[in-house]
Write a structure and sequence with these properties.
The protein is an alpha/beta fold. Helices cover about 40% and strands about 20% of the residues. It is globular, with a radius of gyration of 19 Å. It binds S-adenosylmethionine (SAM).
Length: about 290
C-alpha cells in the first residue's frame, strides 16, 4: 500500500481527468484482485469528492467502480440475498399499507429510482405486488442495468430497466406517474437541495406512496435535523426526509428511525409518504 504522502503526490501531479481514465482502466484489469481495483478507484480520485461530491458519486456509479463493483446478479437476486435492513423496509411498507387500508392490489404500477440490477423490483413483482402490471427502474450504472435486464428477461419478468440519471426524471419519464415509487439507499449520494428536489419530483409522480430509505443519524432522529449532515468517511449525506416530504407536497404516513443500531452494517431510517393531489398536477398515469 502507498503512504498518504505518496497518494497525495500522485493526486497533485496527475490531473483529475487522467486519473479518472486510469481508475476506469484499472477496473477492467482482471489480474488485480477486486479489492485492489476498488481501493485504487477510490484512492485515485479521492479529491474529486471535495471538489464536487455529487459528480464524484455519479462517476463511481456510472462506471461501476469502488463501492459499485459488488452489485452483481449472483449476489443480489433472490429472497436469500435480500439484505436484512431491506427485509425490514419491505415489512414496514406492507404494514404501512395495511394500517392505511391500502390493499396490495391497489398497486398496479411501480417505479424504482436507483434500482441497480432490479433485484428489489423483482421481489416486489414476485412477492409483494404480483398484480402490478408496470414495474420500471432507473439507474445510472449501465453495467448493472444491462446485467439485471438480461437476468430478468430470462426469468420471464415484466420488469423494464432504463439507464439514466435520476436527476433527469422529466427527460426520462415525461409526465408518467406510478402508484408506488421506491427509492432506497440512493438520495444519500446527493446534497440536500438535490435530494429535496428528488423527493418533490417523486411525490409529483406518485399516486399512492413514495417509500424511501436513507442513512439514519446515529444520535438525533433525522426529523430533527435542520440541515443534512455529511458523513466524512464515504462522502455521503444523512438527510431529513420527513422535512423534504412536507416541503415537497406530501404527508408522512409512517416512518422509522433506529438511531445508531446497525443491521449488517446498515442503519434504519425509513419514510413512507403520500403525495398531495396538488403535487401531481399535469402528470399522466403510467
Ligand atoms: C447503494 S445502491 C442501492 C441500490 C438499491 N436501491 C438498494 O437499495 O439495494 C445506490 C444505487 O443508486 C444508483 N444511483 C446513484 N446515483 C444515481 C443517479 N444520479 N442516477 C441514477 N442512479 C443513481 C447507483 O447506481 C446504485 O445502483
Amino acid at each position: 500500500m502507498l503512504t498518504e504522502a505518496a497518494k497525495e503526490a500522485i493526486r497533485s501531479l496527475i490531473p483529475l481527468s487522467m486519473r479518472k481514465r486510469v481508475a476506469i482502466w484499472m477496473h477492467r484489469q482482471s489480474w488485480l484482485s477486486a479489492e485492489r481495483r476498488s481501493w485504487w478507484s477510490l484512492e485515485l480520485i479521492r479529491d474529486f469528492a471535495e471538489r464536487d461530491v455529487n459528480a464524484y458519486h455519479k462517476f463511481l456509479w456510472t462506471h461501476h467502480l469502488g463501492y459499485a463493483a459488488p452489485y452483481e446478479v449472483s449476489t443480489r437476486f433472490g429472497a436469500e440475498n435480500m439484505r436484512p435492513s431491506r427485509q425490514t423496509f419491505f415489512a414496514e411498507l406492507r404494514r404501512c399499507m395495511e394500517a392505511h387500508g391500502l390493499p396490495a392490489t391497489r398497486i398496479r404500477s411501480i417505479l424504482e429510482v436507483g434500482c441497480s440490477l432490479g433485484y428489489q423490483l423483482r421481489y416486489l413483482e414476485t412477492d409483494l405486488f404480483p398484480e402490478a402490471a408496470v414495474l420500471e427502474g432507473i439507474d445510472i450504472d449501465r453495467q448493472a442495468v444491462q446485467a439485471g435486464q438480461h437476468y430478468l428477461a430470462a426469468s420471464g419478468s415484466r420488469i423494464s430497466l432504463q439507464c439514466g440519471d435520476i436527476q433527469q426524471l422529466d427527460r426520462l419519464l415525461g409526465q408518467r406517474t406510478y402508484d408506488l415509487i421506491v427509492c432506497t439507499g440512493v438520495l444519500m449520494y446527493l446534497r440536500q437541495s438535490e435530494a429535496a428536489d428528488m423527493v418533490r419530483g417523486m411525490l409529483s409522480r406518485s399516486r399512492v406512496m413514495v417509500a424511501m430509505a436513507g442513512l439514519a443519524h446515529p444520535v438525533r432522529d433525522n426529523q430533527a435535523l435542520d440541515v443534512s449532515e455529511a458523513r466524512q468517511r464515504d462522502h455521503t449525506f444523512v438527510h431529513n426526509f420527513d422535512a423534504m416530504v412536507k416541503s415537497g407536497g406530501g404527508s408522512v404516513l409512517a416512518r422509522r428511525w433506529d438511531g445508531a443500531r446497525q443491521v449488517e452494517g446498515q442503519t434504519i431510517y425509513f419514510v413512507f409518504a403520500a403525495p398531495h393531489e396538488s403535487a401531481r398536477s399535469g402528470r399522466e398515469k403510467a
